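Comment thread on ticket #2218

A.B. wrote:
> Attaching the input chain for the structure job we discussed in standup.
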Amino acid sequence: MTTNQKRALRRSRSNRVIAGVCGGLAEFFGIRSFWFRLAMIIAFIPGGVPGLLIYLILWMVIPSE
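C.D. wrote:
> Ran it. Output below, let me know if you need it in another format.
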């Protein structure tokens, strides 16, 4: 990919566990999806609601590939 080419934020179809949110974020930012999945797990620790809410919002907002 050249520096002039824009990347679109999309949910991944190939790098997915549930809906492809973490895989899509990883592809967009160019890092491993492990780090986004770890962040989601940490967000689920304080009772689940903050992490679940964030994930559901991202699932609805980020279009699929």
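A.B. wrote:
> Thanks. Noting for the ticket: Residues 21-61 form one domain.
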